[in-house]
Design brief:
Number of strands of chain A: 12
Oligomer: heterodimer
CATH class of the largest domain in chain B: Alpha Beta
GO biological process, one term (chain B): DNA replication initiation
Number of domains of chain B: 4
Distance between the termini of chain B: 68 Å
Low-confidence stretches of chain A: 112-130, 152-165, 441-445, 462-477
Distance between the termini of chain A: 48 Å
Helix content of chain B: 40-55%
Low-confidence stretches of chain B: 434-501
Main location (chain B): nucleus
Structural class of chain B: alpha/beta
Structural class of chain A: alpha/beta
Pfam families (chain B): AAA_16, ORC5_C, ORC5_lid
Shape of chain B: flat
Largest sheet of chain B: 5 strands, parallel
CATH superfamily of the largest domain in chain B: P-loop containing nucleotide triphosphate hydrolases
Number of strands of chain B: 8
CATH architecture of the largest domain in chain B: 3-Layer(aba) Sandwich
Subcellular location (chain B): Nucleus
Largest interface: A-B, 75 and 60 residues
GO molecular function, one term (chain B): ATP binding
Radius of gyration of chain B: 32 Å
Helix content of chain A: 55-70%
Strand order of the largest sheet of chain B: 2-3-4-1-5
Largest sheet of chain A: 5 strands, parallel
Strand content of chain B: 5-15%
CATH topology of the largest domain in chain B: Rossmann fold
Radius of gyration of chain A: 35 Å
Chain lengths: ~650, ~500
């Protein structure tokens, strides 16, 4: 669906500003490298390596996208020489050098020693002459020869005609994706070496920082950081990021797929409580899209109005039955007169007709819902203590859940609005008007709404300007208030608040009240939670204590006796911190014999048969593998429990 | 006067203030044809002219030499190849893969027999301290290279570290030691004044340098850095001259103009809080339009997910509280412990002075669950947050064995950082359990033990008798006493914090 693509492109757009700044920085520093002429100033200055410190926030999974688009951008517009390295590939200086050289030169770099030995055979056959020494001087030589063949071609755009788009000598960009994870020693050495070649090679570093820029100072001593010329770039905070995503994807009637309050809360909760990752949020969105269209057959009707109407006409009998079984539809039926009810329950053609009508009203409902929501948010987000939430998503969830005007918070918000000062109220109303004008596709009814708001504002402005005459008048106004006589402003303000209240009550009905809302709304929050926020420990414990949950033994092929490991697990729950293996074995043998239908007391002479012994040993080692017990040296023939609690 | 000193005047002109060292070196190197001492070790601080003097000497006297920067040599092969290539210029060096010192010696002898030395050859190893980490026999081998290859070769080691830290084992060859002392203030002045700006008189520049040294000499003696700073700030110094507000002779006026500027530079650009380019741009702008440029360390705030914050706070508590006290802090019905000998003697020194202690994962999670206000399922993402805190270097993992069963961690952030995190929202009540003994003591005080207040308020309590902490009064910040449901962390009373300690 378009939603998915839109989400991804939106994410790229959000980083655009920072990336543009970065690009400008790289361009500037590359330019300054080549016009480093012979004047006194530049001769005297120590040559520093231009470095961009990119503060990206702690949402590590999202960085990949940022770096990918950054590399692409640099590649396309500035330089073909971009190498991006990650800490986990570069545990030592050697690997770092190798990776950087490899990515810049696009060839295999010889480091000699062990690992080169390993792939010796097939590389010498491939391209023996291409092996290069792993040193920066080799890189310098290569750079000289590569730039001599001017103009430098972008490897990506080799076919396109725009060849001379790069500078004469494009900069060499090295990106350190996760600065925190690099070993400081490796980084220091690399910077030291690079600083020796800064006159021959237009190097530019980019540090990806997740925490705060002071990390640089923590990792690099002054002697090294003095070799860098660090400039800071800060990305949007991830909460702003999320706000934009929600705003653009959900608070619009453009996309028809919607989350119910629970699902949205689960996803936002994962974001705020666990990872701050917009990528994961979008993955959650994708998952729910998939689930919705997979599990709800009526989701064919979740599309643009015209298409949906056509689809509704083509519904088959089973689908009509499904519609009739929708709770929201049943509620709708109950509200109708008896003749109509009979019609709705019997005639499938009639249902299709009604369905079309209901779909139309569903579209209309959403068209009005979002502008009204935004207006309410504009008014309530300036109130002290934010009774209805600071972020629009909080208000949205509230409106999805229940009738917002029946809540206590709403009442207090309205009371606070009734106390707003003139200038604040006027700015808010102007914003509301903007929101309403923006939704041009409104029907006439909306239009009157818009016009009346305008009228309100004009009214407000009018007496306002006359008040402005003197301070004296204002004082008189206060006087009026004291005598409990309402000023014209107060009257108008009350009118406005009543109007807004009315607006909310007509348009901000929760979607559950709308017939056929199930077609648009995905509400299975349990599934989403299970998939995105897995609880491995709970799953293992469930599997061990109730194996039938997972075995799903409907066909009866699997034996109904509990698996050995489950018996072992249940027995071990009864023990303390140390478990005597022999006692455990005996207990197991008793249970297992009983399960086979034999008399457990029949074990002759306390001897356990070998098969059971072997099964026991295997089950215990499986339990050890799962991390429930471990061998201990504290006591012979004992194992230690690693979990608390009993059954 | 021996012949080899005939170059001395020329060299001292090139290399000011290093006359004694040049003389020693010249005498050591001796006549080109003669064998020289096998190895020389030169040490001195950064930018004390070690490499510059050595290289200029070798170049000026046209001696065959090779310079190797050991930082660059990621492998031995690279080092050997570089040496052989520059000394013999042979393109057919056939070092085996992963060469050892003996391979190098063998090849050297082979090449040397074809091309015996007419003059002493010099191998200069810069950053020689790194040789220690490379291979055990490398350093002793290079020290005796002359013996090993039976050629007229001398190895010069350059390092910032004294020889005592090198000495590999007994029986190794002792090199000749030569120390390059730091430049004195007068010497620095002399050297820096040499590169005067062509558009101004040398005297002016010299006086500028003495002002500069007056500000910076106490913090920085690095010649390279001083030269850089001099270049960066010189335009500002000349500004009154350009505008015609002062003449070159108005020394006092110029000084008044530049001094505050240099002091500011010391706090920003010298520490690389602000990059040199930004500094220059800022200079060009007019005073008023410059917004205060924030340095790197101004951005210390880190935004973390909700549970990560709690995990970090829990880690902090686990690292700085003795494990014995957990029961007392985090259980509802802990047994009564007498307060007098609750903490053992050695625990009475502030835990913050002793640094973080390692703690197992179990303990972290136990504290986490009791600190966090709601019920949290032990989901996979809680665990992955721990590992991402490790990647962010906010926690460190200690000990590499037994990673599966019970990994151990240490908290790597300071109290200030944790407090900043806690003050983001209502996390601070979690910090209440810091077991500094004084806090504990105050917790028993009826005035101090406010159920939801943060540690600092508790600390302030009994001294100030009521909810009017001393520190706040001293700094004159009006603050409300904490309401029951809204505890406040008074973040900005660091002096008071120390005072109370």
């Amino acid at each position: 669906s378009g939603l998915n693509h839109y989400a991804i492109s939106l994410q790229e757009d959000l980083n655009k500003k920072m990336l543009d700044g970065l690009l400008e920085f790289v361009k500037k520093s590359a330019a300054s490298f080549w016009c480093r002429d012979d004047d006194w100033m530049s001769r005297m200055r120590a040559s520093e390596i231009p470095t961009a410190a990119l503060v990206l926030g702690v949402n590590m999974p999202d960085h990949t996208i940022t770096f990918e688009s950054m590399t692409e951008l640099l590649h396309d517009s500035l330089t073909p020489f971009v190498a991006s390295v990650q800490a986990k590939e570069c545990t030592a200086m050697k690997q770092l050098m190798q990776k950087v050289l490899q990515r810049l030169m696009g060839t295999n770099v010889m480091v000699d020693e062990d690992e080169a030995e390993a792939d010796l055979g097939f590389h010498t056959r491939d391209c023996p002459q291409k092996r290069v020494n792993c040193s920066l001087s080799a890189l310098c030589d290569w750079y000289q020869s590569a730039t001599k063949k001017s103009p430098v071609k972008s490897p990506r755009k080799r076919l396109s005609s725009s060849q001379s788009e790069f500078l004469q000598s494009p900069p060499v960009v090295v990106i350190f994706r996760d600065l925190e994870a690099f070993s400081p020693q490796v980084l220091q050495d690399f910077i030291l070496v690079c600083s020796q070649y800064v006159h021959q090679l237009p190097l530019v570093f980019i540090f990806g920082i997740a925490t705060s820029p002071s990390t640089i100072q923590r990792m690099l001593p002054h002697s090294v950081s003095s070799l860098l010329c660090i400039e800071l770039f800060q990305s949007l905070s991830c909460t702003q990021h999320l706000a934009t995503i929600i705003d653009k994807l959900f608070l619009t009637s453009k996309f028809h797929f919607k989350f119910s309050a629970k699902v949205l809360q689960v996803l936002v909760g994962i974001f705020l409580y666990h990872d701050f990752s917009v990528c994961n949020f979008i993955k959650g969105l994708q998952l729910s899209l998939l689930e919705h269209f997979h599990s709800q057959p009526l989701s064919v009707l979740c599309c643009h109005k015209q298409e949906a109407l056509v689809h509704a006409q083509q519904l088959n009998d089973r689908d009509v039955e499904r519609i009739q079984q929708l709770p929201s539809f049943m509620r709708y039926v109950e509200e109708q007169v008896p003749e109509e009810q009979v019609q709705l329950l019997t005639s499938s053609e009639h249902v299709k007709g009604v369905c079309q009508k209901l779909l139309k009203s569903l579209h209309k409902y959403h068209k009005n819902f979002y502008p009204a929501l935004r207006c309410l948010h504009v008014l309530t987000s300036i109130l002290p203590k934010y009774p209805l939430g600071k972020q629009i998503r909080e208000l949205y969830v509230l409106c999805l859940e229940k009738k917002v005007w029946e809540t206590q918070e709403y009442d207090s918000a309205m009371q606070l609005i009734r106390m707003l000062a003139k200038d604040e109220l006027v700015t808010c109303l102007q914003k509301c008007v903007e929101i309403l004008t923006f939704c041009k596709s409104k029907k006439l009814k909306k239009y009157t709404l818009y016009a009346s708001t305008i009228k309100c504002i004009n009214h407000l402005h009018h007496p306002y300007s006359s008040f402005n005459y003197s301070f004296q008048t204002l004082l008189e106004m206060k006087e009026c208030r004291r005598t409990r006589r309402k000023t014209p402003y107060e009257i108008l303000r009350n009118a406005v608040v009543d109007y807004i209240d009315n607006l909310v009550k007509t348009h901000l009905y929760p979607p559950e009240s709308q017939p056929l809302y199930e077609v648009w709304y995905y509400s299975s929050s349990g599934t989403v939670r299970r998939h995105l926020n897995a609880t491995p420990r709970t799953s293992i414990q469930t599997a061990l204590s109730h194996p039938y949950c997972y075995l799903q033994n409907d066909s009866g092929i699997i034996s109904s006796a509990a698996p050995d490991i489950c018996i072992i697990y249940k027995l071990h729950l009864e023990c303390g911190r140390l478990i005597n293996l022999y006692d455990w074995l005996e207990a197991y043998a008793t249970v297992a014999t009983a399960a086979e239908g034999k008399d457990p007391s029949a074990i002759e002479g306390g001897k356990v048969d070998e098969l059971k012994h072997a099964r026991f040993i295997r089950a215990v080692s499986e339990l050890e593998f799962l991390g429930f017990v471990k061998s201990t040296k504290q006591k012979t023939d004992h194992v230690a429990r690693l979990t608390w609690g009993g059954c | 006067m021996p012949d080899q000193l005939e170059h001395l005047p020329r060299l001292t002109h090139l290399l000011p203030c290093r006359e004694a060292q040049i003389k020693t070196l010249l005498l050591l190197l001796g006549e080109p044809e003669h064998y020289s001492y096998p190895s020389i070790f030169i040490y001195g601080h950064r930018a004390s002219g070690k490499s510059h003097v050595t290289l200029t000497l070798l170049k000026e006297l046209k001696m065959p030499h090779v310079v190797v920067n050991c930082v660059e040599c990621v492998s031995l092969g690279l080092l050997f190849e570089h040496v052989l290539l520059s000394l013999f210029g042979s393109s057919h060096t056939s070092l085996p893969r992963g060469p050892s010192l003996s391979d190098f010696v063998r090849l050297y002898r082979q090449l040397c027999s074809e091309d015996p030395a007419k003059q002493t050859r010099y191998i200069v190893l810069d950053h020689a301290e790194l040789l220690r980490d490379m291979s055990a026999n490398l350093l002793p081998g290079f020290l005796r290279l002359q013996e090993l290859v039976e050629d007229n070769v001398t190895v010069i080691f350059l390092s910032e570290i004294v020889w005592d830290k090198f000495r590999p084992n007994t029986g190794c060859f002792e090199p000749l030691l030569l120390h390059f002392p730091d430049y004195s203030k007068v010497e620095l002045q002399q050297i820096l004044a040499q590169d005067s700006c062509p558009s101004y008189s040398p005297e002016l520049y010299s006086s500028y340098i003495s002002i500069l040294l007056g500000v910076f000499y106490s913090v920085c003696r690095d010649l390279r850095e001083l030269r850089h700073l001099a270049a960066l700030n010189f335009p500002k110094f000349c500004e009154p001259l350009e505008k015609g507000e002062a003449k070159e002779s108005d020394a006092h006026k110029l000084w008044r103009n530049i001094e505050p500027h240099l002091k500011k530079a010391m706090q920003t650009v010298y520490l690389r809080e602000v990059s040199s380019v930004q500094w220059e741009e800022q200079q060009q702008k007019e005073e008023k339009e410059v917004g205060e440029l924030r340095g790197l360390s101004a951005y210390t705030h880190v935004e973390l997910p909700y549970y990560s914050k709690f995990l970090l706070i829990a880690a902090y508590l686990a690292s700085y509280n003795p494990a014995r006290t957990d029961r007392r802090f985090f259980l509802k019905n802990h047994g009564r412990i007498k307060k007098t000998n609750f903490l053992k003697k050695h625990e009475k020194t502030s835990n913050h002075l002793l640094g973080p202690k390692p703690f197992p994962l179990d303990r972290l999670l136990a504290i986490f669950y009791s600190v966090v206000d709601s019920r949290v399922a032990p989901t996979a993402s809680i665990f992955s947050q721990i590992s991402s805190l490790v990647t962010l270097q906010l926690l460190t993992q200690v000990g590499h064995d037994d990673q599966l069963d019970s990994p151990k961690y240490k908290c790597a952030v300071s109290l200030g950082f944790v407090r900043a995190i806690a003050s983001d929202d209502l996390h601070q009540h979690a910090l209440r359990w810091t077991a500094d003994h004084r806090t504990l003591h105050l917790r028993h005080h009826p005035v101090g033990s406010h159920p939801t207040s943060c540690c600092l308020w508790v600390r302030c309590g009994p001294r100030a008798a009521v909810w009017e902490p001393v520190c706040v009064q001293r700094r004159g910040i009006p603050r409300q006493p904490p309401a029951l449901d809204q505890p406040q962390l008074c973040v900005d009373c660091a002096p008071a914090w120390h005072w109370l300690r």
